[in-house]
Amino acid sequence: MSRLEAKKPSLCESEPLTSERVRAALSVLKGIVTSCYGPSGRLKQLHNGLGGYVRTTSQSWALLSNLSVTHPVLKILTASVQNQAACFGDCGLFTAILCCNLIENVQRLALTPAAVIRLNKHLLSLCTDYLKSEACGCRIPVDFSSSRILLCLVRSILTSKPACMLTRKEIDHISALILRAFLFTIPENTEDHIILGKTIIVPLKGQRVMDSIVLPGILIEMSEIQFVRLLPFKKADVLKVALFGMSLSGDFSDTGEGTVMVSRGVSLENAVLDQLLRLGRQLVSDHVDLVLCQKVIHPSLKQFLSTHRVIAIDRVGGTLMEPLCKVTGTQPIGSLDSVSSSSYGSVKNVCPAQCGSKHFLHLIPSEASICSLLLCNRNDTAWDELKLTCQTALHVLQSTLKEPWVLLGGGCTETHLAAYIRHKTHTEPENLLSDDGCTKTELELIAEAFCSALESLAGSLEHDGGETLTDMKYGHCWSVQAGSPAVVSWADLLSQCGCGLHNSQEELSWSFLKSTRHPVAPDTCLPQKATDSAGGLTVDCLTAKLGGLQVAVETANLILDLSYIIQDKN
Amino acid sequence: MAAAGSVKAALQVAEVLETIVSRCMGPEGRQVLCTKPTGEVLLSRDGGRLLQALHLEHPIARVIVACVSSHLKKAGDGAKTFIVLLCHLLRGLHAITEKEKGDLMSENMQTHGKHWKNCCQWKCISQALLTFQTHILDCVMDQYLSRHFLSIFSSSAKERTLCRSSLELLLEAYFCGRVGRNNHKFISQLMCDYFFKCMTCKSGIEIFELIDDYFVELNVGVTGLPVSDSKIIAGLLLHRDFSVYCPADGDIRIVMVTEAIQPPFTTSGSEFFLNSETQFQTSQFWIMERTKAIMKHLCGQNVKLLLSSVKQPDSVVYYAALNGISVVECLSAEEVSFIQRITDLSPFVPQASSQYDISNTALVKFCKPFILRSKRYVHLGLISTCTFIPHCIVLCGPVQGLIEQHENALHGAFKMLRQLYKDLDLSYIRYASDQNETSSTPVSKNRRENDQLVETGNKSIQRPYQDTVVKDKDELEKTQTYLKVYSNLVVSDIELEAYIPCSTPELTSADTFQIDETLRCLSPGEHRIIGDCALLAEGNSIDNSTTQVTKITRKQSMSPVKYNSLDEGTCQSYYSSSIPAGSVLPVGGNFEILLHYYLTNYAKKCQSSEESMVSMLIANALLGIPKILCRYKNGKYSFPHFYLKALRALETNQPMVSSQTGLESVIGKYQLITSVLQCLIKILTIDLIISIKRQPQKVHHQDSEDEL
User: Among residues B235, B254, B250, which one has the least CA distance to residue B320?
Assistant: First the structure.
């Protein structure tokens, strides 16, 4: 008998944001994400009482996907941050913190949600317009003829993920590798639109980070025995490759919908094996040098091929098939009987490679946009974190290729934006209030909430009890260590701003982020040295940050607009 | 539960629902977050979805929710207004009974109070409501309200052409109540663009039907991007990747298959005897060769893309790649039928003979992979053979719940437009001003008697009646038999006349033909009965009138058709008219105030105290809607100001000035009021609620009740 249950009525909660429980949950979440933010962020250890290994991380994606939140409001928030991170690769924590800050700041004000949402939207479009405009003072154009800015970008990403456990030297090494891998994926002869290739990250755990390398082409892992058998292999000219997408194991599964009656004494296995060997003979006579199969190759066929000095590798797996197609320049073969000679591909060379404890067959393409990044790190959890970081970096580089700009990092963009908005709302509020019935006071309150959300985001880069300051000329972010002596002059105590563009000897004046200031217009023209100085800047991806900003404000608006929560209790 | 209690109980339930719903209503409304038992979260301002998500237990609440969802199925809009209006009606009824009790105590009886005391049975009121809904409402709509109607069609040309600015206003007002307040402008603009991109000059209502039916196929959701990144792209996006992609330029010929191209080893129901190994190998070889031949043939016919609704074997994909044919597999049944409808492409049956041409191919402008957030789609530039130019909407949003909300709102908007594109027939009886009481009373009495029967068995009578109609359809000309049939069914005719509006919410759009059919045959019948009451004129004149009516009603398209009875004996006129397609009014409670004004006037003129009472009740309840819409406004825009200004304008015959820009569909509003009255009648006719403690007998039975 089927189970029968009457549906339980749902739980309806009114004005969820006013409840103490939700506020507490939000502030806990904010505490978690804020403490992870930035290069000096604290790490989180995630462990599941039921099993699995312990993971140490400070990345939003890993953190939030493992966190089980129960309240629907938090679910919306975390889902939105995760989607953003999956979409842009970077700036997940930025989005989460900004969203939490906005909600928290606005809640303190006793304004109607309608006004808040409308004004938040105006402020957001003010920000996006500014960041996209030519006059933006926190945006640097990327020059693809030199690797400087790109290297800065990758290095900033690696530095901001402390759970990778990399030293300064290792960061330099890995960022160079990532950039090289990215350049490999750009095809050489481009037509009207570019299709980027792929970087395959090959795990090699337990090795030194400095052993990581980037190789063009594909590495196929193999057992030691196979490897030893291959070792005498030396061939330097172009190799002919047959790539099979179907099983070569001699199984016969698809017989249609009817029944097959087999007479006594007839062996289908032999028949199929016969077919396989005939295929083998054809391959040999066509001078194929390398046979790759996604699934299993029958041992007899393998034996046959190896006696004819054809390398046969099976169980390549579905994920490698597409890159293999690209590298060899062919489509997988789907027929046992007549393999047309046009369906063979080629590679420039094949060589066995040994890295650490693992053995690979290295396919070197004559010309393809596929490369392999052999990534080493000391232990599982650090390797996972490093892999995620590498993927992020590659993703960010790709978006930078589409939109060749980077934003200043280290909190400088946030403080600069805050200064800009303060200035704009102070000087020309009528532009923002043009169409709808919001008052000037409302605008000032919301703008203050918005700016302080941005500023406390910059402030949360500081975890060691230090203070964050901003200068009155550029609106950049400066941090001072905790326990500094009572100051005589800030210029002596501070050295560089967050992004590294300005130093303290430039006749600037500072004030604390938390203190109230008179709004001043930040300097919007970028100094020339930004584009040509050799020093290491901290920069962020424009696409990711802009997307994060938009998603954060939209999510905050969404949450502030909630009037009821109806929970289905079935 | 006692009968008198049922209004009170219903009022309590409705008030609870009203408080929830009214907060999401209007342009100032806010969002509601619903969680599903699976853990998904959904954002919504859609009243219907909200009511469903509540999983209400109270029996009256369940009746209300059922009524709302059947209304939504038809109109696609108005769930929140439904609840508010119902609540106000119940409140009005409750107040009347309370007042009556007060009157009893103070011994100060007014005539109305007396009347209500006399027939203070809810059933009686429900009948009055029914009469109102079937006659008075249509009459008021046609006689008074129609002069205020605006149209979304520009009137300059002979043909109906849609005016873009009016459509924008209409959609903006619609999305104002459906999506979050900072997105409604963007979404309505998106929909407007979409609509005009898809439409050709010849498209009419079928475009809405098409979009409504295949809405899921026509949009793609992308999470993680801001809403403002949503866009419209030309062509169709299939939610899957190519199995093989071979780039090709220019117009591309496509074929569609619904079965595996490779011949199967055995077919079902057959047995294959294998006698030797060579036999097996030869048959395998033959299969391969045949597959190869078919693919070569396709290639020879210049086919560049193969769409398949099933997974094709490896060999097919291999040979397709060799011949430069791209392959897309595993299309859903909806996608297949959509492509068929757009391009008239019929499935291709694989045959190897190279002699014949493949006739069933279609052309696409392009076919390429499309990447959205690292997920790959197939992008097809279908060349349409009908009036719909295929376009897709890519909806972006930070979370899936928001995208779903936008998707639902867009779908609802298409439903609303679909309704707006249709004429809505009105029919009513109007007594001539010089009528004498004697001629009208028998009719109304007769009606009342018959109306009482409506509750008992209208459905059972309707079916045999329809059967008769279908049977006798061909013999309509033969008035003799026709009359005979109807004389047997005199009673059921009147009931049906009253029933049909009731049944519409329950009938799905597929049944419209049937409704038309019944309506068409009804009017003669109706006439016939009225004729009976009017002391039967000669048979000749009846014959005449019946045939004439059938003729007139066959020409459905005529707008305002007035039909005066040929019978000299009565002074009643039968009007059949219609609300023309595309009628709109400004938003913000204009419709409600207009209807309120005219109903009040009507009630003043009305002789029957019962009718005037019901009219007043409804007129007052209607005001509840603008009250809620104006609740956050003050000063010049507050409700009393707005109301008084509107009344003054109406009395002096000046145009009403609306504080808001935006339009709403009149047909939608009309349907809403009829649905609410239906629901109220349903509630009032219940006198006892029996709760059954036993488990329901069948699982699916219970499910169907919950999902109403």
Answer: B254
Q: Between chains, do A79 and B319 touch, taking CB under 8 Å as contact?
A: no
The answer for residues whose C-beta is within 8 angstroms of residue B128's C-beta and 6 or more apart is B610, B611, B613, B614
- Residue from B176, B249, B280 whose CB has the most chain A CBs within 10 Å, to mutate: B280
Beta-carbon contacts of residue B155 (< 8 Å; ≥ 6 apart): none
**How far apart are alpha carbons B493 and B500 in whole angstroms?**
10
**Looking at this protein, which amino acid is placed at residue B359?**
S
- Mean pLDDT score, A19-29: 92
Global pTM reads 0.83
Q: Which residues contact B456 (CB under 8 A, 6 or more apart)?
A: none
* CB contacts, 8 Å: B225 with chain A: 87, 547, 551
Please name the residue of chain B whose CA is at the shortest distance from the CA of residue A15: B32
Whether residue A260 and residue B57 make contact (CB cut-off 8 A), yes or no, is no
Q: What is the distance, to the nearest Å, from the Cα of residue B207 to the centroid of all Cα atoms in its chain?
A: 15
* Chain A residues lying within 8 Å of B701, measured CB to CB: none
pLDDT tens-digit profile of A385-395?
999 999 999 99
Instruction: Report strand pairing: B271-274 vs A259-262.
Output: parallel
Distance CA B342, CA B211 (A): 11
pLDDT in tens, A433-476: 766 678 888 899 999 999 999 999 999 998 888 888 888 888 88
Judge whether residue B226 has pLDDT over 50: yes
CB–CB contact A256 B280 (8 Å): no
A170-193: pLDDT as tens digits = 999 999 999 999 999 988 776 667
Interhelix angle for B79-106 vs B3-22, to 10°? 140
Residue B660, token pair as written in the block: 């808001």
Identify from A61, A68, A87, A248 which residue to disrupt to test chain B contact, counting B C-beta atoms within 10 A and taking the largest count.
A87
Look-up of token digits 């995760």? A82
Q: What is the C-alpha separation between A237 and A154, in angstroms, rounded?
A: 37
Dig out the tokens for A396 from the structure. Answer: 């960010």
3-state secondary structure A450-500: HHHHHHHHHHCCCCCCCEEEEECCCCCEEEECCCCCCCCCHHHHCCECCCC
Q: What ipTM was assigned to the predicted interfaces of this complex? A: 0.89
**Which of A566, A569, A570 to mutate: most B Cβ within 10 Å?**
A566
Place of tokens 């500072």: A510
C-alpha distances out from residue A142 to A151, A403, A414, A483, A548, Å: 11, 9, 20, 38, 20
A261/B273 Cβ within 8 A:
yes
Q: What are phi and psi of A236, to 5 degrees?
A: -115, -15
- DSSP string covering B571-598, please? -EEEEEEEEPTTEEEESSSHHHHHHHHH
User: Residues A249, A298: contact at Cβ < 8 Å?
Assistant: yes
